[in-house]
Amino acid sequence: MSDAAEPGRAERPKARRRVAESAPTSTRGRELRAPEPLTDEEERKLHREWWLRLPLTIIAPRAVFTALRDESEASRSARQEPVLLLVLLSGIAAVMQTSAAGSLLDNPELDGALVFVWAVIGGVMYGAVTYWFGGFAIYLGSRGATAKKQAKPTYLRARHVVAFAAAPIALSLIVWPFRLAIFGTETFQSRGGESTGEQIFSIIGTLFVVWALGLLIYGIRTTYAWTWIRAIGTMLLGVLALLCITAPFVFV
Q1: Where are the domains of the chain?
Q2: 124-155 pLDDT, tens per residue?
Q3: What distances in angstroms separate CA 47 from CA 38, 43, 75, 76, one per listed residue?
Q4: In degrees rounded to 5, what are phi and psi of residue 31?
Q5: Shortest CA distance to 154 belongs to which of 10, 146, 51, 121?
Q6: Cα end-to-end distance, the chain, whole Å
Q7: Cα separation of 6 and 189, whole Å?
Q8: Do 100 and 192 contact (CB within 8 A), yes or no?
């Protein structure tokens, strides 16, 4: 019969598909292709895209925070400089809102040039601390809010969410030329802070901070594709975790 195997004839083994030695494979034997490197033109285009996303953080933040999901090497490299600029500007704007800035010129040995130097140096330090520790808080909160079977968020993404959420604080610098034009050096003197106009500018600065906090929650929700409750919980968990870590050093 045709279906019966002929005696004495051994079965021919099935041929295995040959995989190139240079092709990387996973532990399960499936072929994995490494991403092709970008050309110089593609890298320049990607850098331009991230610079153009800076104003979009204010007017259309969804597109920016959605783009933060891309953690490829090229994308991380392309957004380093915009992140650095946001950290610097938001840090300067933040220290300019502190009570210490409002009394700098009470010291007769200081002048406007030293105030500028103080703002830049203080802004760099303040921005760096907020970027690293604020990012660490969001990282801890996002890990706590992530389900067990889901991929854990990265520290880099958390830092970049914090940096772009600080865009409204950086934008608040546009108020300062008007503030200085109206009040001059009194802005950095104790007696100047008592005026109604200075108090109005202080309220405006506070509104920019509130805007940034709201943008941070929105950024967490959009970047991680979570609900509003989960995004708020992430921020609260992060702040709580950071307080638990720093409390022994502060209250000792």
Answers
A1: 41-48+59-247
A2: 999 999 999 999 999 999 988 887 777 788 99
A3: 12, 6, 8, 10
A4: -75, 135
A5: 146
A6: 92
A7: 105
A8: no
